[in-house]
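TA notes. Do not distribute before section.
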Amino acid sequence: QVQLVESGGGSVQAGESLRLSCAASGDIDRTTCMGWFRQAPGKEREGVAFVTTGGGRTYYTDSVKGRFTISWDNARNTVPLQMNDLKTEDSAVYYCAAKPAPCPGSWLYPRPRIGDFSSWGQGTQVAVSS
């Protein structure tokens, strides 16, 4: 099991940036898949961005490509999510999540499935106003 604690949410205006972070501990190895989901009021939880702790493959949902960047900080065991050019539709509670390999983005596992992720953080709110 992996323990996850998010930080960095807040309120910004459209076009501004925020950086979320997720501190991870526990059963992590070089194949662990770490990532972020988000859930807006009245909407289903959706996968946003994912990265493998061993480096290499990343996955982004189409609506954030070119604006969000996910990485794995091996020295700090954290998963930063840099969010630039934020839009009002990015407003949601953001959840850090983890699962064993594979990460989404391959032909075997093209899209994230919520039920496959066994570890979750408590969530952090992001509010973007126009």
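Switch to the second chain here.
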Amino acid sequence: EVQLQASGGGLVQPGGSLTLSCATSGFIFDDYAIAWFRQAPGKEREGVACVGSSGERKYYADTAKGRFTVSRNNPKRTVALQMNSLKPEDTAVYYCNARIYGMHYWGNGTLVTVSS
């Protein structure tokens, strides 16, 4: 069974940093890209960052460029999202995602709240 579990969310002040982690199981981790999405209250889910299977290729949404860094540890089957210079508009539930044989698998989501 494919499983992804996001963790690391919390309350942080504007300008602060937070690192999210995605733990995975149930599939050949080294073969698949992993993405981070987020969904703010009242808004559609949007892509934030993606890391290729080897960790060399990385993609970022414009809103994340220069502030967020995605990385993966293949032996540990985990993906991290380092978020710096956080803004109130980064407040959302963050999900990790894997697309395997055309199907999207989602983690449980972790809430990030940026507020003073």
